[in-house]
Write a structure and sequence with these properties.
By secondary structure, this protein is an alpha/beta fold. Helices cover 39% and strands 15% of the residues. It is built from 17 helices and 11 strands. The strands form 3 sheets. A 6-stranded parallel β-sheet has the order 3-2-1-4-5-6, with helices on both faces. The protein has a 3-stranded antiparallel β-sheet with strand order 7-8-9, with helices on one face. It has a two-stranded antiparallel ribbon with strand order 10-11. Strand 2 (33-38), helix 2 and strand 3 (69-73) form a beta-alpha-beta unit. Helix 1 crosses helix 8, helix 6 packs across helix 9 and helix 8 crosses helix 9 (202-208).
């Protein structure tokens, strides 16, 4: 098989929990050699963070975020272990860390220190609020970022308690944006020969994904409020209730709207000035849904979905995660993979969300056991003359 796009790049993953490990896993999936550097004994805190296990000591959360990586434990407060890190930096292209701002400098592993060792180094810091600004030292978690970015205020249903987005949009978004920054820096380095410092945060990831919400704010002068499953820019575009339960519809433009009301047998709505165009339907969204509700109750959700799809109007059932991962489309797109593991035997994990035809991805390495590759990594450094032999015994 041809080399994957990032084959030949080495990543040092000095991160824990979600955003950093997710970023580094994406780089590993694309072929990078990812070395996960963990604290001795306990390792990445996510190894022990979830309330359930499969067979081994590592939590399913850790397994989900750390495929295609090798593990070595280093105590970065220890001079000898820090020298091992410095040796690895000489061989690396990318470093990813997600400590609170200032911690990496105190440890002597900050960008200025490491780029002096390797000027081509691309160094990404992921934090709750970024490296600068009055909130920089605040602890950052996904929930905190959702609260302080505006996401929490606009999620859920009117009049109900605040509802967090169940997907960790701030954490995973920060990982995605960091990956985007890293790959941009890799391309830029081809011309400049120099590395670059990347500063990503959970707060800015959540804000960066708030396209419709900020558009509504600046367009109307009012902060967005919760609207349930509806869309801020289109109507009808939300969940509706059939005789046997809920499903979703998306008549998101004028052509679809006209086809939609034809399927529903509600052509008289075409002449209602409240629903004349998308803008007026958005303004009168609740009245529109109230008008449509009795019609939807006349048939089952399966009957409505079949009729709407046949006419070209987007509609879908609401699947739970069990149904979603077992759906014929997810199966056809290999969105569930069985990953072999030395302790678990095999476990299920999400597949690759982007397909590469010329260089298809694969799970080359299962999530590593803690310190599993220490001897191998130290031996590589010895062979390159970057670490004195014999190496210290495995911790």
């Amino acid at each position: 098989m041809p080399n994957l796009p990032l084959a030949g790049l080495r990543v040092l993953d000095i991160s824990q929990v979600m955003a950093g490990p997710f970023c580094c896993m994406l780089l590993g999936d694309m072929g990078a050699d990812v070395i996960k550097i963990e604290p001795p004994r306990v390792g990445d805190s996510t190894r022990h963070s979830m309330g359930f296990r499969l067979k081994g000591e590592d939590s399913p959360g850790f397994l989900a975020l750390n495929r295609n990586k090798r593990s070595i434990t280093l105590d970065l407060k220890d001079e000898a272990d820090r020298d091992v890190l410095y040796a690895l930096v000489k061989t690396a292209d990318i470093v990813v860390e997600n400590a609170r701002p200032g911690v990496s400098k105190r440890l002597g592993i900050d960008y200025d220190t490491l780029s002096a060792i390797n000027p081509r180094l691309i160094y990404a810091s992921i934090s709750g609020f970024g490296q600068t600004g009055p909130w920089a030292q605040r602890p950052g978690f996904d929930l905190i970022a959702q609260a302080m970015s505006g996401v929490l205020s606009s999620n859920g249903f009117p009049g109900m308690e605040p509802a967090k987005n169940s997907i960790a949009v701030a954490d995973l978004g920060a990982g995605l944006f960091a990956t985007y920054g890293i790959l941009s820096a890799v391309i830029g380095r081809q011309a400049s020969g120099q590395g670059q410092y990347i500063d990503a945060s959970l707060l800015e990831a959540a804000m960066g994904l708030s396209i419709w919400e900020t558009t509504e704010l600046w367009g109307t002068g009012k902060a967005p409020t919760p609207i349930g499953s509806a869309n801020r820019m289109s109507a009808p575009y939300q969940a509706v209730k059939a005789s046997d339960g809920w499903f979703v519809i998306g008549a998101a433009n004028q052509g679809l709207w006209l086809t939609f009301i034809d399927v529903l047998g509600r052509r008289e709505l075409q002449d209602d000035p409240r629903y004349a165009n998308n803008a007026s339907r958005v303004v009168n969204r609740q009245a529109l849904i109230d008008d449509l509700a009795p019609t939807f109750l006349t048939r089952t959700k399966e009957e409505w979905i079949e009729a709407l799809l046949a006419a070209g109007v987007p509609a879908a059932p609401i699947l739970d995660y069990g149904e979603a991962v077992e759906s014929e489309q997810a199966v056809a797109r290999d969105m569930v993979q069985m990953i072999p593991h030395p302790v678990e035997g095999e476990f299920k994990a999400l597949g690759f969300p982007v397909k590469m035809r010329g260089t298809p991805q694969e799970v080359r390495l299962p999530p590593p056991l803690i310190n599993e590759h220490a001897d191998e990594i130290r031996r590589e450094l010895e062979e390159r003359g970057l670490l004195a032999a014999p190496a210290e015994a495995v911790r």
